[in-house]
Amino acid sequence: MRRAPGHENDRRGEQMTIDALRCMRAAALTLACALLPLASEAAPSATDASAQGALLPRDSRDAGIFRGGLVYANYCVTCHGFNADGNGRAARLYNPRPANLRMSDKNDAYFGLIIRQGGEAMGRSQFMPPWGAELTDEQVNDLVIYLRSINARPKE
Questions:
Q1: Is pLDDT above 60 for 6?
Q2: I need a labelling partner for 104 at 20 to 30 A (CA). Which of 42, 52, 63, 154 fits?
Q3: How many CB atoms lie within 10 A of CB 56?
Q4: What pLDDT is recorded for position 127?
Q5: If we measure between CA atoms, which residue out of 111, 84, 109, 112 comes closest to residue 99?
């Protein structure tokens, strides 16, 4: 005899499935706990990872470029764009448009000042916000290192 969907006998299979999932979850958790000590013994040390190039010394230029790229992605990309060419998503809203940072002839000190103080304080666009109260000195320095690394302007 066929029963309508939702009848109490039809739910017996659902309950068995839920019970089976609970058992599998408990077994997986038990296995993970049992293997944890083995994983920590097999994990490479920081010196091994460094020798393989996985870790960068904190004060290296490459680490500064990496960290500066993260700052750029969080604070600058909306206006200056992914390619730092001044064509970000919000660029069309501004006149003057955001600077093309890939072709800038400005020095590192100028970049640091405009990042900290904003465009208006430097005689540039009022739409460039001052980030000095929000970014640490290390973040500003890393951002300047990043901008220098992507600059496509020929070196003189």
A1: no
A2: 63
A3: 15
A4: 96
A5: 84
Question: Which pLDDT belongs to residue 111?
Answer: 97
Q: Give 62-111 pLDDT, tens digit per residue.
A: 999 999 999 999 999 999 999 999 999 999 999 999 999 999 999 999 99
Residue type, 29: L
Give the orientation angle of helix 137-150 with respect to helix 61-75, to 10 degrees: 100
Model confidence pTM above 0.70: no
Other CB atoms within 10 Å distance of the CB of residue 70: 13
- Cα 104 to Cα 124: distance, rounded to the nearest angstrom: 14
Q: Vertex 142, ends 109 and 50: CA angle to 5°?
A: 140
Give, to the nearest 10 degrees, the angle between helix 137-150 and helix 108-117: 130
Neighbours of 76 (CB within 10 A): 21
